[in-house]
Design a protein that fits this description.
8-stranded mixed β-sheet; globular; binds D-MYO-inositol-1-phosphate; binds calcium ion
Length: about 260
C-alpha cells in the first residue's frame, strides 16, 4: 500500500502541476466559452486541463475509475476512483480574477485517501494523505486558533442554481455577516477549503457543492486539524450537498448559526 501511495502521490502531483501550468499559460487567452446553465460557464481551458489530468492518471492506472466535472464518470475495474475538478473557479478564470485552482482527490472504497489542490498563479500546492497531515509546498500546515465566531474570518459561496434553489444560502450569509469578523465570497470552493486548512480563513460553508469541489479540500482540512460536517454537525461525505468546514474551535458556534430558524 505504501508503495502504491507514493506512486498515487507522484502522479496526482504531476497531473495537478501540469494542468495548472496549462491553465496559467491560457489566462486571458480563452478560445471558447459556453454555458452549462444560466450562469454556469465552461471554457476550452477547463476541458484541456481535464484532458491532461485524465491522460496522466489513466496512463499510470488504466483500471482506475474517474469522476470528473466535465466528462462525468468513467468506470474502471479497480476500487480506486479519482475525483477531479480540472478548474475550480471557472468564472474567475474567465474574467482573469486571480483565484482558481486544480483539485484532484483519490477515493478508495468510498473514502478519500489523498488530495492535491494547486493554485498555479501563486504556485501553491496543497497536499494531504489520510493520517499523514496536510502540507503547503511541502511545509506542514494547520488550521487557525481563532476561538470566537465574532473574531472569525469566514468564506462561503453560492451555487449556480441560486435562482431555483429552495435553500439559496442568503439567510446564512446574512446571519454570519452579523456575527463574524468578515466574510469573503472569492469563487473557488476548493481554494476556500485550503485557506481554512492553512489558517487564512477560520471557517467555510456552502450549499450545493459537488464531490469534485469538496473531495480533496475536505481531506486537506481534516489533516490540518480542522472539522468537516454537515450544517447540523453530523457526519459529512463529499457526496453531501451541504458542507461546513472550520478550525474546529468555532465549529459549534457555526452549527448554531446554520441551524437558526430565521
Ligand atoms: C464553483 C466554485 C464556486 C462555488 C460553486 C462551484 P466551478 O466551481 O467552486 O466557488 O461557489 O458552487 O460550483 O464551477 O468554478 O468549478
Ligand atoms: Ca468546482
Ligand atoms: Ca470546475
Amino acid at each position: 500500500m505504501q508503495n502504491n501511495m507514493s506512486l498515487y502521490k507522484k502522479i496526482a502531483t504531476q497531473a495537478a502541476l501540469k494542468s495548472g501550468i496549462c491553465i496559467k499559460k491560457s489566462l486571458g487567452k480563452i478560445k471558447k466559452i459556453s454555458y452549462k446553465g444560466r450562469i454556469n460557464l465552461v471554457t476550452d481551458v477547463d476541458k484541456k486541463a481535464e484532458g491532461i489530468i485524465i491522460k496522466k492518471i489513466l496512463s499510470a492506472f488504466p483500471d482506475h475509475s474517474i469522476l470528473s466535472e466535465e466528462i462525468g464518470s468513467k468506470k474502471g475495474t479497480s476500487d480506486c476512483k479519482w475525483i477531479i475538478d480540472p478548474l475550480d473557479g471557472t468564472t474567475n478564470f474567465a474574467r482573469s480574477f486571480p483565484f482558481f485552482c486544480v483539485s484532484i482527490a483519490l477515493e478508495k472504497k468510498g473514502k478519500v485517501i489523498l488530495g492535491v489542490i494547486y493554485d498555479p498563479l501563486r504556485d501553491e500546492l496543497f497536499f494531504a494523505e489520510e493520517k499523514k497531515g496536510a502540507y503547503l509546498n511541502k511545509k506542514r500546515i494547520s488550521v487557525s486558533k481563532t476561538k470566537k465566531l465574532s473574531k472569525a474570518f469566514l468564506a462561503t459561496g453560492f451555487a449556480y442554481g441560486i435562482k431555483e434553489a429552495k435553500d439559496n444560502n442568503i439567510r446564512n450569509f446574512k446571519n454570519f455577516l452579523m456575527r463574524s469578523l468578515a466574510i469573503r465570497r472569492a469563487g473557488s470552493a476548493a481554494l476556500d477549503f485550503c485557506y481554512v486548512a492553512c489558517g487564512r480563513f477560520d471557517g467555510f460553508w456552502e450549499v450545493g457543492l459537488h464531490p469534485w469541489d469538496c473531495a480533496a479540500g475536505t481531506l486537506i482540512i481534516k489533516e490540518a486539524g480542522g472539522a468537516v460536517t454537515k450544517f447540523d454537525g453530523s457526519d459529512y461525505s463529499h457526496y453531501n450537498e451541504y458542507v461546513l468546514a472550520s478550525n474546529g474551535l468555532i465549529h459549534k458556534q457555526m452549527v448554531r448559526v446554520l441551524t437558526l430558524k430565521k
